[in-house]
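Lecture 7 notes: from sequence to structure.
We start with the chain below.
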Amino acid sequence: MKKSLFLLIVICLAGTFIVIRSVHADWAYEFVVNEGKSYIISDNRVEPEQVDSIIGKVTKYSDFEDTYSGNFSNHFPKGTKYYNIKGISTNEAIAIKLSNGSFIQANYNGEYPGGDSFKWTTILWSIAGLFLLFVVTFNWIKNRK
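Predicted structure tokens for the same chain:
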């Protein structure tokens, strides 16, 4: 009985190692990333005559907390366009075109740490979990005989 309970606990722990993933959570603020620069969405409207040329668009949307590569947003859908604001450097702010055709300002917040789709930590935790599961299962089978 003790061995079965121990095995159950170990399998649960191993499963936890295997399925470690990013957690759906609320971000601290709404933002967009353009060319590695992070911008926090403000409430300030930008007049259409202040908007200059297009500088990018959202290539990845997600509401899961993690780091992503590309022009990412945790608020705007894929395809939302970013624009320069006349007389303002992109190191200060950019304009974002809303679905209704109006523009909103996003203020520069620094370099975005970025991410890549290949996560070594996930791979390593999965291997550790599988190894633990294998060792415990092997010992349990060995001791049953």
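Points to note: Strands lie at 31-34, 37-46, 51-57, 60-61, 72-73, 81-85, 93-97, 103-111. The chain has two helices and eight strands.
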